Every structure is written in C-alpha cells, then in structure tokens.
Amino acid sequence: MKLSQEDLAGLIDSDALRSRLSTLTEKHDGDGSDMKIRAEVLKELKSQVKSARADAQKRLNEDGGGILCAGRLSFIQDELIRVIYDFARNHVYRIKNPSAAERMSIAAVGGYGRGTLAPGSDIDLLFILPYKQTPWGEQVVEYILYMLWDLGFKVGHATRNIDECIRLAKTDMTIRTAILEARFIWGDRPLYDEMEKRFDAEVVNGSSSEFIAAKLLERDERHQRQGTSRYLVEPNIKEGKGGLRDLNTLFWIAKYHYRVERQAELVKKGVLTRSEYARFKKSEDFLWAVRCHLHFLTGRPEERLSFDVQREIAIRLSYTQHPGMKDVERFMKHYFLVAKDVGDLTRIICAALEEEHVKEPRGKGLTGMMRRLRSGRKSNTVTPIKGAPGFVVENNRINVTADTIFESDPTNFLRVFQVADKHDYNLHPRLTRLIRQSLKLVDKDLRTNAEANRLFLSVLTSRHQPEKTLRKMNETGVLGRFVPEFGKVVAMMQFNMYHHYTVDEHLIRSIGVLAEIERGNSGDDHPLATDLILTLQNRKVLFVAMFLHDIAKGRPEDHSIAGAKVARKICPRFGLNDAETETVAWLIAHHLDMSTIAQSRDLSDQKTIQDFAQTVQSLERLKLLLILTVADIRAVGPGVFNGWKGQLLRTLYYASEPHLSGGHTKMSHNVAIADAKEGLSKKLGHWPAKDRKAYLDRHYPAYWLRTEPDRLVTHAELLHQADKDGKQLAFQVIPRAFEGVTELNIMAPDHPRFLSTIAGACFSTGANIVDAQIDTTTDGFALDTIFIGRELPDDEDERRRGERITALILKTLRGDERLPEPVSKKGSMKGRVKAFKVATDVLVNNALSDDYTVLEISGLDRPGLLYDLTRSIATLNLNIGSAHISTFGEKAVDVFYVTDLTGQKIANIGRQDIIRERLANAVEGEVELDPAAPVARKVQKQAS
Fold first, then answer.
1. Which of 595, 588, 509, 497 is nearest to 551 (CA)?
2. What is the rounded CA–CA span in Å between residue 556 and residue 130?
3. With 60 as the cut, is the pLDDT of residue 827 above it?
4. Where in the sequence of the chain do the CATH 3.30.70.260 domains occur?
5. In sequence order, what E strands does 140-265 have?
6. Beta strands 123-129; 155-161: pairing state
7. Rounded Cα distance, 428 and 787, in Å
8. Which helix (H) or strand (E) holds 732?
9. 530-548 burial, b if ≥16 CB within 10 A, otherwise e?
C-alpha cells in the first residue's frame, strides 16, 4: 500500500540518520567494521526506532487509522533497512569495482510485502541474488540480519537467486504466495524487476485454478484450527474466521487471477462494486486498528482479542456505554459485524471467479468450487423449481431467472429460503449478492404480509435443517430485516465468560440443538428431552420461543421480561393465536427458571418443588420448559451442558410432575424412592440379604431422589467396603472424561466443618470444585460427592491426581496437615477473570424452604472461594444441610441450605445481617478466623 508524504512526514529522517552514522566512522577512516562503531550505530538505530514507533502509536491514538498505522510502521522499517544496507555497503564491506555477481535486491514478503506491519509483526525478507552466493553478499546479508535481531525484531528471511525463486515457487505454495506479495525495498532494482517478470510468466500464467484451490483449502484448514464460527467471543483477529488473513486470502486470489496490484482495481474488473470495495477497505482499516492497538497494549504480537484486553481496546477506540450495553460490548458488536462483512466479501469474490469458470458440483459452496477447480469439470444444468416461479436450480444451488424477482414479489425473499430448506439447496453466489443488494425491499409491508410470515414460520419450525437455513438468512441480512428485533442482537456479544457466541449465533444454534433433539440424535445427552418432545401438543410454540428467548438482550430491562413483551407483539404477526402467543411469552419470561432452580436449589425440599410447580401451572408447560432449557444450555457453548446438569434437570422435572398431574404419575416421590431402592437392590445381589436391607435404610428420602442410579451403586460399594474394613474414613476417585470432571466420593463422620475441610484441601492442591452433593446418612456419617475440574487428558493420570487430593483430605481430617489460611481476593485473581467485575450479593431467605434458611451468595469466581465461604459458615455456627455450587463463566453462585446448631432457621434479623456481612467479606477474601477447635480433632476422635 502507498501512503502520502503527509501521512509519513516526520516519522524518520533517513538522510539525517545516514549522515550521523557516517560521522561515527570518521575517526576510523570510514571503516564501520570496528565493534565499538557497531555498538554506537546500534545505539543510534535503537533511539530512532523507539522514537519513530512511539510517534506512530501517538498518531494512531489521534487519527485512529489502522491502515495508516500499519503503513507507517512498514515505512519506518523500510527506511531502517535501507539505512542499514547502505551503511554495510559503504562503510563495512566496501568494494570499489563490484562484479556482476556482487549485487543484491532486498524485497519485503508476507504482510510486510503488502506494505503493512503491526507493532509486533515478524519482518519477512527475501534477499535476491543474480547467481550463486558470494562472500560479499553473505557478509552484507549477515550484517543486516544481526543488526535487525539486535534491534529486537523477529526476522524471517531467505537468500535465493532468481532461478531458485522460480523453481521453488512452482513446487511450494507458501513460497509462491510470498513472492506474489514481494515488494522492492532497496538494492539492485533491475534484479528485482527480472524476478517479478519471470515469476509472472513462468509461475502465475495459466495456474490460477491451482492457486485458488490451494488457498481456499488452506483457509478452511485454518478456520478449523481457530474455530469454525466467526462469532466466537474471544476471536483471533489475524487467523480467525472473518479476520485479516481472510482478507489477505481474498486479495491473493484476486491478484493472482486478475493480475491486479491494488484492491481498487477489482472495481474496474467488475469483481466488486464501489460500495463493496468501500466495505473491503473499511473492514481492513478497522481490523488493522484493532490489531495495532492490541500489539501496542500488550507489548507482544498478540492476535487473540481475549476478555482481559477487550475493554481497554474499546476505550482506546472511543466506544462509550449505552443503556443496556457496555462500551466493550458495543466495540465487540462492531467487530463481529466487520467479520460478517468479510464473509460476505469472500462469497462475492468467489462468485465472480465462478462466473468465469463453471458451476459448482453438489456440495458446499467453496468446497465444491475447489473440487471443480481441481478437476476442470464443467456442468451447467439448469432446472426450473416446481412451485417457485422465477427460481431455478443449478447443480444443487438456487438461482434466479431475472434480477427483478424480488421487486416483482418481495415474498420471494422468504420463499427462496423455504425452498432451500425443503430441498437442501445451497444459494448460488449470484443470488446471494442479489439478495444483499435488494434488502431495502424487506420493509414494513413485507413484515406484515401473511404469506411471508407463513413461509418464515415454516422455515423456523422445519423438520429438515432449520439452523442451516436460518444462518443463511442471517448471513444475507434477510433475517435481521424481516425480524428487526433479531436485527438488534446480530453480532451482539455478552461480556462474560459463560457465553461462547454472539446472541444471534446462540439463538440460531439453539434452534439447531432443538431440531437435533427432535430427530432423536441426542438421546444419550438428554434422554428425557428426546422422549418429551414427541409428546408435545404444539411444537410450534417451542421453536418460536427458542428463537425469541434472548431477543431482548442488550436492553436496560431484564431480557426475560422484555423478551416476553417482544413475543406478545411479534407472535400474532407470525400467525400464532392468543393462547400460543401467551405460552411463548411465558416460556421466554421463565426460560432461566428451571436451570437456576435445578442448579442452585435443594430438589428434595418440598417447598422448592411446590413453588416451582405453582409457577409452571401445567404439565405441558413443564415439558416445554425442560426441552427449551436443555437446548438453551447446550447452545451456550461446548462443554457447558454436562451429565450432572442433565440429571439435576430430570430430577426437578420428575419431582414437579406429580404436582401438575394430580399426583397420578409413574414417578411420584414415593414411587421414585421405591424404584431407586429396588433398582439398587437388584444390582447388589452379590451382597448378603441382611446387608442389603440395612443399607437401604441408611439414607434419607432426599438422597434417593437426587442421586443417579450409577452413583447409588458407587456409594453403596464404598460404604459397604468401609464397614467390612472397620473404617470410618473412605474415599473413591472416578474420572469422568465425558463431563470433563473428576468425581470424589468422601465418607467420614458428620461434622459442621466437614465441607470446609474438603474445600480447603482442594484449594491447597489447586483443584477447582465445580459442583458438590452433600448428604448425611441416618447413622451419622457425611457422604459428600465432590466434582473437580479435570486437568489431565489420561484417565489414569487424572485418577492419581484425585488420589493425591483425597490423601490430603484424609491427612487434614486426621490432623496431620493444617489447612491454608484464607486467601486474598487480589492474590487469587488469575488470567481472564481479572477483566470482569461482578457485584457481590448475599441473600438470606427463609421463604424458599420450610426447614432451612437458604443462603445464596453470588460474586466473582476465584480459586479458594468455596473454601472461604464454608469456613465463614462454620465460624457462624451454622449447619449445612445441602450445598449447590454453580459457576456461570466468571460468576459463581453458591447456595447453602443451613440451620443453626439446634436445627432451626435463622429468624433473628440481627444475626441475618451478620451472616450477610461475613459472607460478603468472604467473597472478597476476608475471612474471620475461627477460634474454635478445628474439625480435625473432632473427626479424629470419632474415627478412633
């Protein structure tokens, strides 16, 4: 790229720099080879580099120009290399009569070849020689490289003669791409021109199909490594989908095929319209601005926009907070809209390439084009689509017979996607471009058109691949125009560690998960949801609610309440009647309830179940809410939904079902407990009958209701073996690779500080507790199931890690080890978590349970948080009846069902205030030390 003299003025005065370096050599008769002189030269160059780059950063902060900054840094580097080369040639390795072989040309390649550099970019150089290497050439190259390395640059380089350049470019696509982007910096210009001329004639000519196929394949493989979605909330701005490398790939292809030097020439070639070219430049400038700021901010070549830098970049780019949206969320929304534009440009340029060649065979757009480019096969079969006048199918892709198809009938905006979904057609690139150019026709009249809404609803509720079709609608811009409320959440990110995707991507993925459940492809993960979805009276309301459940994100009002209002407005437009509309609105208003209650409430507590059932009111709503909850969690991101959460949701469903069906259900409490006992008894057939009977009486009803069948067996064998061995302390470690956790089952004499001891031991070993199930047996033992985050890939390694943790717990309980002191919040904050602020909140509630006071503590998650909380609860002389540990990204929500030491609720207002204060302090890492005797002595006494 070329910048004006005004853009570059004052950055670096190379003539003055050359003069100062020459002056340094005068006392040595112009000989710059002396090491003292070299040291002084290096010092002078370092000063210049520091000053020039600081100036470039200052100008970036002032004018915000990303490409300007990248161009200025490239110019500084060019001038630096020119000065170093001239100094080496004139003062270090002087030759009076150079031979034809003693000349060289220095060219920039890679991103540097495009005339753009980020602050932390590598410097890629190609030293071009006329023939073989000479001692002079070797010395000059070595001098330049060592000087650049000593200046702190990371330099990639190659030294080749022209014949080598051409030969290697023919066989190595990376080298071919590097030479394609080569740019003359200094030295012998005719040498560079000769290489460029031969490269064009001997390598590029006639080989564009091969090059395009290779670059698109390379791009797809890169996307696979980085994450296939361009809507990941911590994107890689260089290598990720929709990033700078995608723009580079587009220009490589265009430059190679159309023989252009600048992007602007693509307008003359008819590849891009002026508005599309403007989008190209705007996207490129924005991405470069972000990248330069990121490198300057971190002081290293960082390419990932991680949470801990996003807010600072947003401030540097002058984004401000709006009602309902933080400054960082507005910045990231802009980023994702740019990434979307890059995707559009990819399709446009590939469409232009296809117009010059042949139509794509059946398969995905770019993949099919690559196969065609490799094979050279041509096919142009065009068939009218029955029932869709004006549309034709060409090799499994929909195209149009006339560019006026949307003007003549705007409902075709929806019809084309309905046809694509029905027949699994892809959109022809020409059609995609026409849709984008015609979006102004998607207006109020079309939104209220009954046929258009019928077609949209058929896509949304399709039994084929609604996710795929909705994503096409979103990428073309139709979805956001036809449903403006959806358009407001397009590219919107939520600044937290819980959600992995933007809001629009999450909504579309949730529809895909829902369709997958309906097809029965997720039975192992959500067996209950898979069974229930086939029994729904009206599946349409489920899909509409799923599509709209987060539609009101980014508003000042709670998104569940605001979303219900949006649903009441928009559902009649979609053709839903009053009853269906009200059901959709209710589902959206309560779409978080089931997840929250399942993960943070005691599901064996009857009041919890009664209150939840009162909210739900009907069995049909319960079914709908269960399925919607499962799909919502699954669509948040990989690994968010796991077997433990699935079990909690099933338990809540089965516990609530009798209250909504008049008590006539196969899974009433009594029946559920009886079934659990009978199932376990059958699996313990190898036990003596007397032992089986005694064990079945060893647990309270709550235990049978909330414990999975497999875990019932595990616990039974653990306790039975401990009885046989005469032990009162027993442990078991079970790695669970599928859920990404390791399960620790721990039995010991019950004591109020037992959970705190376990939490402290886990903290000491660096183990992160992600969930806990606390149970007490009828004979006075605590049976705790603790789930810690998995760290090692191999099960046996992870098992040994778990055994080390349980060994420490054992030593702590016996009094052989002391627990660590409470940790400070400041010292425990690590990595990305530092970027977030979560308000600490402590609720003390006596209305949620008939028997317990419920403590709900929310705040910023950190290592040792659970330990500090349980220590504080112990010092408050409270008994923990059950604990429910939940983490939502950076936010921890820990709930404890407690009583005082007499088994009563905490009714005294003054004591409630003390509890709130102590637990709020614990979240901040400030724990009041307990003067009472440690749990170890109590447990040790009981065990002996």
1. 588
2. 68
3. no
4. 823-928
5. 155-161, 183-187
6. parallel
7. 50
8. strand 730-736
9. bebbeeeeebbbbbbbbbb
Phi, psi (5° rounding) for residue 400?
-115, 155
Class in CATH terms, 5-205: alpha beta
Buried b (16+ CB within 10 A) or exposed e, 870-879: bbbbbbbebb
pLDDT band at 371 (very low <50, low <70, confident <90, very high): low
Residue 326 identity: K
| This prediction's pTM | 0.78
Residue 339 CB partners (closer than 8 Å, separation 6+): 230, 231, 235, 240, 241, 242, 243, 491
How many Å apart are CA 335 and CA 479, to the nearest integer?
19
Q: Return the SS3 of 63.
A: helix
For residues 199 and 169, is the Cβ–Cβ distance under 8 A?
A: yes
Positive or negative, the CA dihedral 154, 299, 334, 427 is positive
- Phi, psi at residue 747, to the nearest 5°? -120, 135
Confidence of residue 487 (pLDDT cuts 50, 70, 90): very high
Please report the DSSP string for 307-344 in residue order: HHHHHHHHHHTT---BTTB-HHHHHHHHHHHHHHHHHH
pLDDT, one tens digit per residue, over 308-318 is 899 899 999 99
State the DSSP H helix or E strand holding residue 644, giving kind and residue range, or none if neither. Answer: helix 643-660
Beta bridge partners of 892: 859, 887
Is the pLDDT confidence value at 701 over 90?
A: no
Is the pLDDT reported for residue 185 higher than 70?
yes
3-state DSSP assignment of residue 262 = coil
Q: Are 748 and 813 in contact (CB under 8 A)?
A: yes
190 closest CA partner among 253, 308, 104, 267: 104
Rounded CA separation 491/554 (Å):
11
By residue count, the chain amounts to 944
At 280 the three-state DSSP class reads helix
CA distance 374 to 354: 13
Who contacts 435 (Cβ-Cβ below 8 Å, separation ≥6)? Answer: 406, 413, 416, 427, 476, 477, 478
Amino acid code (one letter) for 846: N
Q: Residue written as tokens 């069906």? A: 661
Give the residue, 852 or 5, on which the prediction is more confident: 852
812, 871 Cβ separation under 8 angstroms: no
Yes or no: say if 53 and 76 are a contact pair by the CB < 8 Å rule: yes
DSSP strands (E only) in 16-122: 105-108
pLDDT tens digit sequence for 765-783: 888 777 777 788 988 898 9
What's the topology of domain 823-928? Answer: Alpha-Beta Plaits (3.30.70)
Task: Sheet with 891-900: list strands edge to edge.
Answer: 841-845, 853-860, 891-900, 878-888
Place of tokens 């590598």: 122
pLDDT at 501: 84
Q: For residues 644 and 201, which has the higher predicted lDDT (pLDDT)?
A: 201
- pLDDT of 542 > 90? The answer is yes
User: CB neighbours of 560 closer than 8 A, spacing ≥ 6?
Assistant: 552, 588, 589, 590, 591, 592
How do beta strands 781-789 and 769-776 pair? Answer: antiparallel
- Give CA–CA dist 858/852, Å, rounded: 19
**By the 8 A CB rule, do 902 and 836 touch?**
no
The helix/strand count (H/E) of the chain reads as 43, 16
Which residue in this structure is represented by tokens 């098992």? 799
d(CA 60, CA 68): 8
pLDDT at 763 over 60: yes
Other C-beta atoms closer than 10 Å to the C-beta of 29 total: 6
Task: Give start-end residues of each CATH 3.30.460.10 domain in the chain.
Answer: 5-205
Position 477 confidence tier, pLDDT thresholds 50, 70, 90: very high
